[in-house]
Write a sequence for this structure.
């Protein structure tokens, strides 16, 4: 079973926000005391924190799916729902976070560094918060937003000052065990070290960390052996110490050739050209090793390297080597730029930024995108007609309808708001100026909006014939009508003149 994991995939799911509450205060002698529904609680976040007690990503390897708790819905009597608990996950120092597209989004260095992997959803407003002077008793509440879901890749890059690199069985593990309190596995066969080991070294007043990287072989940069899996652990190091085996029994190998091979693999991996190199000629306690070290030391110094013959077994030359490492660390720390306090940059929203965008599609439909409008859609309960009317009023007030009209939308055009699973598709009908809160009486009951035809059963209009009763007919004697049973008048009678000119 694996005991060290330095690359995992994390599926983080934040908690959902609680729904708002629809409640009306009812007391004795006060049958309708007004709305008192509270807001829903906020969902919990998934948080990554650098923990010094964590040295591997093994926990995420066994349990990659992590979910925070959701917020509770609001209560009546003006009580808000409780918030969901944040899920805090410890990660090793030097963890790098990548998104689903492979782009680096965070580099966690330093104990206590915090990164929010997934943000919890906001709670919905209750009908108490939605009440206004014109909307006295809302019959709806807003829903809680769903929590953020993200797929992240975590990679561990060891935070060490010095990296020991070299062929398998070159004595790297023995060397780090001799100069520090680290106790890696040591054996007389290749690839004994399967995971990077860290050790703390004290040289005078300088304390630094040394990483023992598993052995490199030709082709490691292309994935051969274990080199490619752990070369990332040397990226943060100030200097590289080449541990060369002077007592190897292989006739086709020598320290100079081993150095060239390892340098070629480091060059193919890339990004390590500016690191300072130190040569440690190991195993000089052996007669052949001492002779080989004396033979190649001059050639390596001629190439510009600092060369230190050492023996991890007898501890010969280790003090000179550790003090040489300390000098490099001191020089690097002295040249390090002093970190300045992060300047806070405020970027206000532009005055002409409406917060949404309307796009006319080729099929004649229209798509509305924007954080605000998409959040409003997620918070709308589409089973409540009054909530739908409230959403329509908010969109109209924001200017969405005017923009749709400018883009060529007409009544009945298909409009999409949002994207993915939360997308809402509807046929656009321009709203009237009077909002849902302005309608009263029998036209607007709690939980309904009279602008939606499906919310109430409209009675069919019956044409009633206006027929006079017998008493009304008796009173029609003064009118000149052709049919006394209807109030319709007959055509007017014009006056005729007699032959003598008198009107009749």
């Amino acid at each position: 079973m694996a005991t060290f994991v330095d690359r995992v995939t994390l599926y983080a799911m934040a908690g959902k926000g609680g729904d708002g509450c629809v409640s009306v205060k009812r007391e004795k002698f006060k049958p309708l005391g007004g709305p008192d529904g509270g807001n829903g609680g906020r969902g919990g976040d998934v948080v990554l924190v650098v923990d010094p007690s964590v040295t591997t990503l093994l926990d995420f390897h066994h349990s990659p799916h992590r979910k925070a708790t959701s917020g509770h819905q609001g209560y009546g009597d003006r009580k808000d729902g409780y918030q969901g608990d944040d899920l805090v996950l410890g990660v090793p120092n030097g963890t790098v976070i990548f998104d689903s597209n492979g782009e680096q989004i965070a580099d966690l260095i330093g104990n206590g560094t915090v990164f929010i992997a997934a943000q919890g959803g906001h709670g919905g407003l209750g009908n108490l918060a939605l009440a206004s002077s014109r909307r006295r008793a809302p019959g709806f509440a807003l829903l809680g937003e769903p929590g953020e879901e993200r797929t992240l890749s975590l990679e561990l890059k060891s935070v060490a000052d010095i990296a020991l690199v070299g062929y398998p069985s070159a004595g790297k593990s023995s060397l780090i065990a001799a100069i520090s309190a680290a106790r890696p596995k040591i054996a007389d066969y290749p690839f004994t070290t399967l995971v990077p080991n860290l050790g703390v070294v004290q040289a005078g007043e300088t304390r630094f960390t040394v990483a023992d990287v598993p052995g490199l072989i030709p082709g490691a940069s292309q994935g051969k052996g274990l080199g490619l899996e752990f070369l990332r652990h040397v990226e943060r190091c100030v200097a590289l110490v080449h541990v060369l085996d002077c007592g190897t029994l292989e006739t086709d190998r020598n320290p100079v050739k081993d150095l060239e091979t390892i340098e070629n693999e480091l060059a193919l991996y890339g990004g390590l050209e500016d690191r300072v190199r130190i040569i440690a000629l190991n195993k000089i306690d052996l007669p052949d090793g001492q002779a080989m070290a004396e033979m190649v030391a001059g050639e390596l110094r001629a190439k510009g390297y600092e060369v230190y013959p050492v023996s991890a077994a007898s501890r010969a030359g280790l003090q000179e080597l550790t003090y040489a490492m300390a000098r490099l660390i001191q020089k690097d720390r002295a040249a390090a730029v002093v970190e300045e306090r992060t300047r806070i940059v405020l970027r206000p929203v532009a005055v002409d930024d409406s917060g949404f965008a309307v796009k006319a599609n080729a099929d004649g439909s229209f798509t509305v995108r924007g954080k605000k409008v998409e959040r409003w859609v997620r918070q709308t309960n589409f089973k409540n007609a009054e909530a739908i009317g409230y959403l329509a009023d908010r969109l109209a007030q924001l200017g969405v309808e005017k923009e749709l009209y400018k883009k060529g939308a007409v009544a009945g055009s298909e409009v999409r708001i949002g994207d993915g699973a939360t997308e809402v598709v509807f046929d656009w009908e321009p709203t009237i100026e009077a909002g849902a809160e302005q309608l009263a009486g029998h036209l607007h009951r709690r939980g309904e909006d009279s602008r939606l035809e499906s919310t109430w059963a409209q009675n069919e209009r019956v044409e009633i014939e206006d027929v006079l009763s017998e008493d009304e007919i008796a009173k029609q004697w003064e009118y000149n009508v052709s049919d006394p049973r209807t109030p319709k008048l007959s055509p007017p009678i014009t006056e005729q003149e007699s032959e003598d000119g008198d009107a009749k």
